[in-house]
Specification:
27% strand; Integration host factor subunit alpha; IHF-like_DNA-bd_dom_sf; two-stranded antiparallel ribbon; transcription regulation; elongated; 41% helix; 3 helices
């Protein structure tokens, strides 16, 4: 497994090389896309990216948990969580370990 992490800068650089926009325009484009995705998720919308996967927000209800060390019951507050469900194509690609 690789130790490399893909960053915003890496995405901007890829847009610069593959699309031909300037570095500044590429960075602005990446920021704009990420901002739109973030805003949609924050407002509770589902974000589906074809051949990649689906991001969605789920509301978790309050429940009682347990401290594993002491066994004491602990209340867990209701909260919103972000989930990602990869597409079948993405799952297959990751399983095969192929780049493109």
């Amino acid at each position: 497994m690789s130790e490399k992490t893909l960053t915003r800068m890496d995405l901007s650089e890829a847009v610069f090389r593959e699309v031909g926009l300037s570095r500044n325009e590429s960075a602005q484009l990446v920021e704009s896309v990420l901002s739109h995705v973030s805003d949609a998720l924050a407002s509770g919308e589902t974000v589906k990216i074809s051949s990649f996967g689906t991001f969605s927000v789920r509301d978790k209800t309050a429940r009682v948990g347990r401290n594993p060390k002491t066994g004491e019951e602990v209340p867990i507050s209701p909260r919103r969580v972000l989930t990602f469900r990869p597409s079948h194509l993405m799952k297959d690609r990751v399983a095969a370990g192929t780049k493109r």
